[in-house]
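User: Could you write out the 3D structure of this protein bound to iron/sulfur cluster? I've included everything you need below.
Assistant: Certainly. Input first, then the structure.
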Amino acid sequence: MLKTFSIGGIHPSDNKLSAQSALMQLPPEGTIALFLGQHAGAPAEPVVNKGDKVKVGQLVAKASGFISANIHASVSGTVAGIEPVADISGFKKPAIVIQVEGDEWMPEIDSSKDIVRDITIDSQTIIKKIAAAGLVGLGGAAFPTHVKLSPPPGKKAEALIINATECEPYLTADHRVMLEYAEEVLIGTLLLKKALNAPKVYIGIEDNKPDAIKLLKELVVKYNYDIIIVPLKKRYPQGGEKQLIDAIVGRQVPSMGLPVDVGVVVQNVNTAFTVYEAVQKNKPLFEHRVTITGKEAKQQVNMIVRVGTATSKILEAAGGMPESTAKIVCGGPMMGKAISNIDAPTTKVSSSILLISEKETKRKPESNCIRCAKCVEACPIGLEPYLLIKQAQRNMYDELEANRLQDCIECGCCLYSCPAHIPLLDYIRLARAEVLKIMRSRQK
Ligand code: SF4
Ligand code: SF4
């Protein structure tokens, strides 16, 4: 029987409409904008000035603390300014704007297709190269990868899990990476294993990607790699760290704990690919892979895009927006964020542009809770969402904390399951932010 996590979860239709579309390159043109704070932690500090000429892969902003990440030019050209630029929500944030001129790469980057299989450097050098290349977790959190590879004193990674579930409906960029860069993904996985000195490594892939499972299994046997490929039963939100660890090694991350508390480090499959590029090819993180999709999208596309490209340019290259589009989402339909500024530049973690039509956005009318407990059944954390929203509506923060609202992963399973169409996630998100704020101020 295929493995999966033990509590809650839902089975939305996966709508992987773009799964057969090979990754295509979007050539850089016009201007791009690189946000200084596009990762978890402190924003990077610019090391270039207006008027400077830069090449692709050149450092333009330096990490400003332990939890921070370097940023590199994704295009060659002239720095047009360091100024506020509106993000997908319309909030202005400092960014380095570069006018594209040609496509000249830093000479140390190996841009050939030759695969570099030999791993000749030690774990500390791997981590240094990952930090220098500005790698962040590409599963969405944008946590600097080198920090995750340096567990706190007293903690050790007994297992590394590569998250190749891509459990959100519609998204297919990770799937394409596995099919088109399978060897690179496996070498990146071995580099992460070495960096962590982890005795075991697993790659967890949902069974709706049988071609990727087959290919990776064949290559592991061919090269005799010490990697275990684990097919998983399709179920959302299997890509959540806690759910994936439960599914693969059967360990439970404690409330407010980290995976390393149970001896596990989780990295995304796309991150493993960028680790290969950074360590074996000296290529910093300046490109990302993005799915452009939707039931009524003009084309189903997977694209390799330079970081900082305007969303509108990507859409244009994917055939434009159909007239029926009512909402554009960055990410998947369950956990993605609505885009209100279509000209916003992408970031290192932008993985999808989902076009949702008018008829799909219509919310069904809300009715009273019928105490069916479907939300409880669906919650992968074991919370009681119907109770949490009652307490959230009354600002009962002590009770919310006692009922572990802080452990909610905002997966939306409760909302999806509710026959009364109560906007559970809206209430839960707001109240959770408040509870976390209270907890943080208490710690201080
Ligand atoms: S959003 Fe939170 S409360 Fe709702 S199912 Fe997911 S984890 Fe549970
Ligand atoms: S699923 Fe909806 S209707 Fe059912 S108990 Fe939960 S909140 Fe109430």
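The first helix runs from residue 123 to 132.
User: Perfect, thank you.
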